[in-house]
Each structure stands twice: as structure tokens, then as C-alpha cells.
Design brief:
alpha/beta, Rossmann fold, Arc Repressor Mutant, subunit A, 5-stranded parallel β-sheet, 3-stranded antiparallel β-sheet, 18 helices, 43% helix
């Protein structure tokens, strides 16, 4: 089922499917035996016998740069410098922090600045996983600090507690920015912060708003990232109440909330009393022009160029995900640089996709890998791919009708629901959620849907 490339011949295959010729040469192992070292005979009488010096073996791998990111400037290390520059420009393992590594989200950044500066509302950034919400929040924070906003970033977790979270926020706001403190007063000289004005022990949105409403001389932005991870219902209720209280008092404090969600209500909850105080900013998939702009960062940094075929391949396989654009662009760029080429071509992009698919598959739990290789998965390959496309929303849930639409009416809704249930019960790949309306399904392990879609796309290209 999953696209897989053999290592020692020139064929590719689909696990559980037919073999397809990839047309890509694969290096063969060296048939020459390893050299052996033979000790010389004992020396003649009167001579001291010495064992011949061993031939030096291959050098072990070494780091390309020091911990301070310094690279030697001689010609031999020019390749290392370019490789590190490509990593810095297109590395996908961490969110983007600096503006020079940010590309393709000009409209989203403009809308966010407009909402904060002109509308003076609180903002909720939502969208699917890997779509660039955290990167946008970080770059926005840097831009706001240049405008002398006091920006405080906090990452939410499953154990997030309202009092603890906002006590740490207040600990980073100097008390000199409170209306009750004069610049030359003793309180100002102490260097205290807003935390000292909070009550001891737990507190709620009203007590916090009483303190925050006194902000003067600056504007405070509180970024709550990964808000979807919060499981405490009380935390979400207090945040909604805080938004209302801050807005009612025209406080110089605004919240920017980011999280995985399909829509605004999914992340914040249905709260009519605060809808006029917040604006939703959906993060949509990148278009081809934005993908090209993002890859141009790698071109300038590493002095390489992605040709039209490589650009088209990466755009198609990434599906609008900035994370995948960076991941595939980085891998493809390294493939070309390893061959001392400055142009990244279609073959480089194909190998990059194959490596990503292989790495993703290897990272899945063994039971998931086994389930994907079962006969039921092979027989219903088209259904699983259609389900993966139907579940590409932020929360991953989809209905029978969604899959029916993706399959173009090739199967009846009853047959689709029956087969989906097979992968809930017999083959443990899907989860099922009952509720009002049609039953909802989603893949039980993150990454399976993307793996299926990329594998299907590669299979189409091979065919």
C-alpha cells in the first residue's frame, strides 16, 4: 500500500501491490573485497623487527560547524557553509522565528496587524496542523516588538492552569506601566511587576482584568499558542471572560490565540457575548506563488536553483503545507548539493518525497505499519486515500458523505460506511465518533493521512 523504493535494484513497488519501474539509478554496492593487512616476517638477525604501520581507515563523520555556528572559511568548507545556510532557510524541524526566514504569508500578516492595530480586537488564528500558525505568531511578535508593543508569548499544554499561566504573564509586565505608579515613585524604583498586584492563590478573569485595565504607556499583546491542547474547561471559560472584561474596559491589552481548529467556535467555543470583540484569522494552504516564494529563500541562502519540474513536484506533494514545502525543499536541495550541482531537478524532488514517505512510515508504531500492510488495506486502497483527502481539515474528522464526494460517486454511501467501519473494528486504523447527524471518522494516528496521500501521488506519477 505505501510507496516504497527498493535499495539494491532499479525497481520500486507498492507494498501489497504491483512493481513499477522508477527509472532512477540506485548505487550498487562495491564488489571489491576489503584490503587485508599482513604482518611482515621477522627481521634478520641483529635487526629490530617492527610491525608495519596500519593503513589509515576512513575518517569518522564530523560536525560541519562549531556550537557557535562558525564554519571555516577555506574553500574546502564552502560546501558545508552552503548546506548550513540551506538548513537555516528551509529547515522544517522548528517553527520560523525570524522574519528573514519567513515567506508566503504576507496577506495573513497584514490581516493580523490590521486587526490588532486598527480594529483593536483580540485575534484567533486557526487552521490545520503544520499550516504555519506558530511561525506567523513568532514573526508577528518580532514585528510588534519593533513597534514597541510589550509582547508576551506563552505555549499552552494539556495541564494549563489559568492562574499559573497569567501569573507568569504578569510577572513579565513592569509595574511602571500601571496607572497607579508614578515614574519617580518608590514603587517604580523597586522594579516590581504586575504580579505583585494579583491576589495570593488562584484568581479569575475579573481579578486579572482589574489589574490589566491599568496598563498605560504601552500596549500589551499576550500570545497563547497551541490553545487547542487545553483540556481544562474552566481555563477556556476564564479566557472568554477575560476577553469580554478587557474589551468592555478598553484595556490596552489584547490576546492573540492560535490553535488547531476547523473554525472559530471550535477553538473558542460558542460565546455570543465576545464575538464582536474577536476576529478569526484562518490559515489556508499555500498557493503555488507562495510555495515559490518560500523556496526562493533556500535558493538565495545556498546559491542553488529549483527548476520548474522540481517546483511543480514539491508544490503538488506538499499540498499547501509550509512544513512539507520546507521539508521537501530542504531534502531535494541537499540531493543536488551532494552531487555538486546548483540546479535542483525533478529527480531530486522525487527522491526527497521517497525519503519523507520512508521516514514517516518508519516512525509509525509497528501495529499501524502492520495494519497498513494487511490485505484489507490493499483491497480498499482507494477508499483509504479518499478518506485521507476527506480528513484533511484541521481536526481530521470526516463523514461518509465527504468520502463519497472524494470518490466521485464510485461507491454507494452504504458500502462506504460499511467499509469504513471495517477499519474501526477489524483493522485498527480509524476512530469513530457518534453524535448528532452522521457518524464521523478520522485516522487514529497523526501522519497516516498525509502518508497515504503522498504515496498515492507517487504511485500516480510512477504509473
Amino acid at each position: 500500500m505505501i510507496w516504497k523504493r527498493k535499495l539494491r535494484d532499479e525497481t520500486t513497488e507498492l507494498i501489497g501491490g504491483e512493481q513499477v519501474d522508477a527509472g532512477l539509478p540506485i548505487a550498487q554496492p562495491d564488489d571489491q573485497p576489503a584490503p587485508t593487512i599482513v604482518e611482515s616476517a621477522p627481521a634478520a638477525s641483529g635487526e629490530v623487527w617492527r610491525r608495519p604501520a596500519a593503513e589509515p581507515g576512513p575518517m569518522l563523520p564530523r560536525f560541519m560547524a562549531s556550537a557557535s555556528d562558525d564554519v571555516e572559511t577555506d574553500l574546502a568548507n564552502e560546501s558545508a557553509r552552503r548546506r548550513l545556510a540551506l538548513r537555516d532557510a528551509l529547515g522544517a524541524s522548528q517553527p520560523v522565528i525570524a522574519r528573514e526566514s519567513f515567506a508566503g504569508r504576507r496577506d495573513a500578516m497584514s490581516d493580523l496587524i490590521n486587526a490588532v492595530e486598527e480594529q483593536r480586537v483580540h485575534v484567533v488564528i486557526y487552521g490545520e496542523r503544520g499550516i504555519g500558525k506558530t511561525s506567523l505568531a513568532h514573526v508577528f511578535a518580532e514585528t510588534a516588538r519593533e513597534a514597541r508593543y510589550l509582547v508576551i508569548y506563552g505555549s499552552c499544554g494539556t495541564a494549563a492552569n489559568f492562574s499559573d499561566m497569567f501569573r507568569s504573564v504578569c510577572a513579565r509586565i513592569p509595574r511602571i506601566y500601571h496607572t497607579s505608579v508614578l515614574p519617580n515613585s518608590a514603587e517604580a524604583e523597586k522594579g516590581e511587576n504586575f504580579e505583585v498586584m494579583l491576589p495570593d492563590g488562584p484568581f479569575g478573569a475579573r481579578e486579572l482584568a482589574d489589574v490589566m485595565a491599568g496598563v498605560v504607556g504601552t500596549r500589551v499583546l499576550v500570545i497563547l499558542d497551541e490553545y487547542d491542547r487545553v483540556v481544562d474547561v474552566n481555563f477556556r471559560r476564564e479566557v472568554a471572560e477575560l476577553i469580554k472584561n478587557l474589551s468592555d474596559r478598553a484595556a490596552r491589552v489584547q490576546l492573540v490565540i492560535t490553535g488547531v481548529a476547523l473554525n472559530l467556535d471550535e477553538l473558542i467555543g460558542y460565546a455570543p457575548s465576545i464575538r464582536r470583540n474577536i476576529t478569526g484569522l484562518p490559515m489556508r494552504p499555500m498557493n503555488s506563488a507562495e510555495v515559490k516564494e518560500l523556496l526562493r529563500l533556500g535558493e538565495r541562502a545556498a546559491e542553488i536553483r529549483y527548476d520548474a519540474a522540481a517546483l511543480a513536484m514539491i508544490t503538488q506533494m506538499a499540498g499547501g503545507s509550509p512544513y512539507l514545502v520546507r521539508l521537501l525543499g530542504h531534502q531535494a536541495g541537499l540531493m543536488a548539493m551532494n552531487d555538486n550541482r546548483n540546479v535542483v531537478g525533478d529527480a531530486d524532488a522525487r527522491v526527497a518525497v521517497e525519503r519523507v514517505i520512508s521516514d514517516w512510515q518508519a516512525s509509525l508504531p509497528r501495529r499501524v505499519q502492520a495494519n497498513l500492510a494487511r490485505d484489507e488495506a490493499r483491497v480498499h486502497w482507494g477508499l483509504l486515500v479518499a478518506a485521507a483527502r476527506a480528513g484533511s481539515s484541521a481536526d481530521g474528522w470526516f463523514t461518509v458523505d465527504d468520502v463519497y464526494a472524494e470518490m466521485g460517486g464510485a461507491h454507494s454511501p452504504l458500502a462506504i460506511e460499511r467499509d469504513l467501519k471495517l477499519f474501526v473494528n477489524t483493522v485498527d486504523l480509524l476512530e469513530r465518533r457518534e453524535g448528532p447527524g452522521d457518524p464521523h471518522f478520522r485516522f487514529g494516528y497523526p501522519g497516516v493521512a498525509s502518508l497515504l496521500m503522498m504515496s498515492a501521488a507517487m504511485a500516480r506519477l510512477a504509473a
